[in-house]
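Researcher: Re-running this chain for the archive, since the previous output was lost when a drive failed. Same request as before.
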Amino acid sequence: MYMRLLFLALVVSAIAPLPELAAQFPGSPLAVSHGVAREGAARYRDPPVNVPGRYVVISLDEHILYLMEDERVIWSAIVGTGTGTRLAGAGQEWDFSTPRGMFRVQYMEKDPIWRVPDWAFVERGVPIPPLDHPSREEVGMLGTTAIYLQHDIAVHGTNNPELLGQPVSHGCIRMTNEAVRRLYHEVEVGTPVIIY
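Model: Regenerated structure tokens:
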């Protein structure tokens, strides 16, 4: 029964705003906490995904990433998430919220190069260059490691760890470089990631 409610919550969250959806369920729609979250502690009454092995849960309200195995927290780290602000310019609009839902790790990179999107040039107040222009690639902006959930959403490092624990990004999930490098070695392509 719990897994059916979870599935329904994930499906409906794409349609209904999450706060309204959460009000329909006792506690969080994904989790029932048991005491203080710590390594080895049971965080869920039932695992929120029905897969063998590890998975990741990211709480946007807590700004914490949990590495899970079954119902147990294996490891956790503080994160920075999307600000939820909006930007318009050059005939386009962007929403800098971290998306909620079920994802899977698509690919992972060490020493990633940021492919600078149009919004970054609009935000900087400079003309948008062609897609093949050298200014479209910036080294070091994603920290030392990036774990991609979509082509434009990643869990990645940061050069400003003092900003973690709050909404700070343009939608990606930021971690310390050390934490994301550890996560890189703990997950693999296909690992489920739940963001709520």
